[in-house]
Amino acid sequence: MGAMRIAVLAACAVTLQIWGTACDRRTCQRPESESQRQPESASVEREREEMGKRTTKTDAERKKQLTPEQYHVTCQSGTEAPFTGEYWNFKGKGVYVCVRCGNALFGSDTKFDSGTGWPSYFKPVSADSVEERPDNSHGMKRTEVACRKCGAHLGHVFEDGPKPTGLRYCINSAALDFKESAESKAE
Ligand SMILES: [Zn+2]
Questions:
Q1: Looking at the structure, do residues 25 and 71 belong to the same domain, yes or no?
Q2: Quick check: 98 and 130 in contact, CB under 8 A?
Q3: Among 170, 90, 80, which residue's Cα sits nearest to residue 130?
Q4: Residue 62 alpha carbon to ligand 1 centre in Å
Q5: Cis amide leading into 68 (omega within 30)
Q6: pLDDT (tens digit per residue) in 15-60
Q7: In angstroms, what is the span from residue 95 Cα to ligand 1's centroid?
Q8: Furthest C-alpha separation in the chain
Q9: What is the mean pLDDT of the chain?
Q10: What is the pTM of this model?
């Protein structure tokens, strides 16, 4: 009986050891394979992961919902050519919302002519509008602006804007949709 108990215990110990080693190998291998990847693809993947957390839409659904230009800008952090977008020279009164999720982003009362060929604003509608994160791509140190609700890439923010904030939110038209204000419609 005693011998059998020892045998069972030994078998358990061996099983645990094998299982433990397998676990160790798994956890060790993951960071190793991650560090072997290119830093850029790792950051893109992290961004996708982050975006995935905040939205239930799949990439295929996004492709269906958006035009190729809207998809390129909001999902792949693309930039539209200046002076080509729908809103760089647009002067309607209302609110600019996220083209993907409808989150209110910028009011027409904060839009100004920056001369850059992209719609420019000196501040977002509210604290829930956008989030800002460092962007070191293309050899530049910039601050990316994304929709706080769905993570869509919108553009960048620079510190050379007009008063009262001194900020210039340089946004792609393709990331925006415009909702005309009720007063403006009544006029
Ligand atoms: Zn959004």
A1: no
A2: no
A3: 170
A4: 12
A5: no
A6: 444 343 333 333 333 333 333 444 555 665 565 555 544 556 888 9
A7: 14
A8: 96
A9: 81
A10: 0.70
Answer whether residue 5 shows pLDDT above 80.
no
104 Cα to the center of ligand 1, angstroms: 8
Considering the domain architecture, whether residues 69 and 46 belong to the same structural domain is answered as no
Compute the C-alpha angle 168/80/149, nearest 5°.
Answer: 65
What is the separation, in whole angstroms, between the first and last Cα of the chain? Answer: 96
**Spatial distance between the Cα atoms of 96 and 174, rounded to a whole number of angstroms:** 11
Could you tell me the distance, in angstroms and rounded to a whole number, from the CA of residue 89 to the centre of ligand 1?
Answer: 22
CATH number for the domain that contains residue 143: 2.170.150.20
Instruction: Give the catalytic positions in this structure.
Output: 170
Could you list the beta-strand ranges (E) of the chain: 94-98, 104-107, 111-112, 120-121, 130-135, 142-147, 153-158, 168-171, 176-180
Residues 17 and 163: their CA atoms lie apart, in Å, by 66
Token pair for 91: 């002067």
Q: How many CB atoms lie within 10 A of CB 36?
A: 8
